[in-house]
Amino acid sequence: MIKKSIQVSAKAGLFFVLLCVLVVSALVLYLKTDHCRKVIIKRVNANIPGSLAWQDLDFSFLKGEVQVAGGELFFRDNDKIAGFDRFFIFNLRASFKRTLHFLFFFNQERHEKYKKTKGSF
Questions:
Q1: Rounded CA gap, 69 and 60, in Å?
Q2: What is the pLDDT of residue 120?
Q3: In degrees, to the nearest 5, what angle opens at C-alpha 52 toward C-alphas 48 and 57?
Q4: Which of 58, 61, 83, 105 could form a disulfide with 72 if both were Cys (CB 3.0 to 4.6 A apart)?
Q5: Are 42 and 77 in the same domain?
Q6: Nearest 5°: CA angle at 54, between 73 and 67?
Q7: pTM over 0.85
């Protein structure tokens, strides 16, 4: 009787682990799609006075970072304000402590910025 309950518990645990791996894998694949990129751009542009565009967006859950490549920021009348080669947001886990680490590359030049907030982002 005890062996059978251990087997059932082990199978349930294995099923749960496989389900978690499947969900995370599906999420990673979705985040790399064009549809997801368009949704993110639409949400960002709805919250800023102007618009933001980029060529590539890459999420790395293992490193805990987001990389945006080929980005451009435009004002309301489509005048280009700024552009960047690559933009990293490091250590997403630290964002739960309200600290972000930004790394910009402008014309291959490295710029870093740390942001600590008291409220929410």
A1: 14
A2: 45
A3: 125
A4: 83
A5: yes
A6: 110
A7: no
